[in-house]
Amino acid sequence: MKRDIAIEVKNVSKKFKIPHEKIDTMRSIFVNIFSKKTYEEFKALDDVSFKVKKGETFGIIGRNGSGKSTLLKILSGVYRVDEGEVNIDGKISPFLELGIGFNPELSGRDNIFLNATILGLNQKEIKEKFDHILEFSEIGRFIDQKVKNYSSGMKGRLAFSVAIHADREILLMDEVMAVGDMRFKDKCLDVFENFKKQGKTIVLVNHSPEVIRVNCDNAMVLDGGKVMAVGDPDEVMKEYERIVNV
Amino acid sequence: MFQFLKQHENYKELIWVLAKTDFKLRYHGSVLGYVWALLQPLAMFAVLNFVFSSIFARGGGEPFYSLQLIVGIMMFTFFSEGTSSGMKSLLSKSQLITKTYVPKWTIILSSTIHSVLTYLMSLIIVVVFFIWKGLVPSFGAVMMFLFFSFLIYVIIVSFSFLTASLFIRFRDLAMIWGVVTQMLFYATPIVYPLKTMTENMQQLLLANPLAFIVHFTKESLINDHFPDLWQINFFIVLLLLIFIISIFVYKKTSKGIAENF
Questions:
Q1: Contact A76 B100 (CB under 8 A)
Q2: Is B98–A78 a contact, with Cβ atoms under 8 angstroms apart?
Q3: Chain A residues within 8 A of B106 when measuring between CB atoms
Q4: Residue A121 forms contact with B (CB below 8 Å)
Q5: Which long-range contacts (CB under 8 A, 24 or more apart) does B13-16 make?
Q6: What does the pLDDT read at residue A25?
Q7: What is this model's ipTM?
Q8: pTM here?
Q9: Residue A147 Cα, gap to closest chain B Cα (Å)
Q10: For residue A24, which residues of chain B lie inside 8 Å, CB to CB?
């Protein structure tokens, strides 16, 4: 792998077996011991290859069920590949969902520590960044309240602030820009711009061709688990619009 | 292929924070807090002591019967809670497996650490009981007790690694294990002294590591009587073997569980 490449995906395929009857107890094993186990195979990703350069913002677009989330899960290490190869150079932030591990029964403060630890920070780093996280989230004096008493906006803001402080070289962003009100969104966009300036590699998954066009250096269209087009965002979005309109 | 080891350099902290969170979540919100955690084994002790002390401790039969009982109950609770929460650990933290990459073994270990924390709490009660009854065990006996507690911990860790991934596929394992632990409770000399059994039965019962551990913990703490070295070595080798097997099984069964949730 060349040194200027952050993510290299080579001929990756991923299949899911969907059983017709799910066997999830010991009892059902015995009950179904002689019956044939049938399942359907679903190919979520089919021979997907692409490269993301370091410092680049790479957009992925595709209809529902096109394999975007599966791809992100493979990049973040949640799923393994069936075939092919994934090489990643740099620390990757699994931005798949905000507030992973958040517990409503804990205070905002405890949740910051919990969530940041899950995202890979150590206690010293969290203590150093705590004030920034708190300030950015605009939770203020509610930080020692239980998260179950937060509004969904507050929860989203808190989760987002922790996530952006995770300090990774490669960021996976799955439509997470949509938290908070207009003002908070502007703040998030600032952060996003900052990340770009700092030379972070960003993989942005979005449904809006406009967002990809404006923000990305390169883009890719997925459909039915296959790469339909990859390259310049303007060209790629034309292909996407063609697929959607068919 | 993947270089995920690089991603999470904070394993130790991750394990500790997860364990601490579980510990906090379990007992907060109630005014009595930690008392609740200890209430269940204490209530069990009260009932069993009431019923069985008249049988086993009558006329100076078993010295310090209540102490033997409380030690046995606390050790067994450590075992039963540790194994069952270890088995359920991956399922209860499914979000960490399906939404992000966290090494699965850290989740399992954090559950066992949580059990240790609870056990340490319960030991406070044991100490209070010993002070109350005025029995001071020898230094060697206390060391033996700590060592045996560690052996139970090894059993808990092995069992958790063996079953945590399997439990995701077979959800009724918890019910099966519930029945087995209940049987184990009576196959372990907790309420009765081992010597009330026939010689053959004693040998049979002692083949169960848990029975061996509980019996000789009681013997060493109360009577300052220790097991033979070869017996201890035998169980160390046995548990080590089970531990190694559990790591292999874990490696095999933990693959692809994110896909199969």
A1: yes
A2: yes
A3: none
A4: yes
A5: B13/A117, B13/A122, B13/A123, B14/A117, B14/A118, B14/B102, B14/B106, B14/B110, B15/B106, B15/B109, B15/B110, B15/B113, B16/B110, B16/B113
A6: 82
A7: 0.86
A8: 0.90
A9: 13
A10: 169-171
User: A89-103, A203-217, B154-168: lowest mean pLDDT where?
Assistant: A89-103
CA distance to partner chain A, nearest, from residue B255 (Å): 8
> Using one digit for the tens of pLDDT, what is the confidence trace for B193-250?
888 889 999 999 988 999 999 999 999 999 888 988 998 999 999 999 999 999 999 9
For residue B29, the chain A residues in CB contact (below 8 A) are 105
Minimal Cα distance from A29: which residue of B?
A: B170
Q: Identify the closest residue of chain B to A111 by CA–CA distance.
A: B21
Q: How many CB pairs under 8 A join A and B?
A: 89
Torsions phi, psi of A218, nearest 5? -140, 160
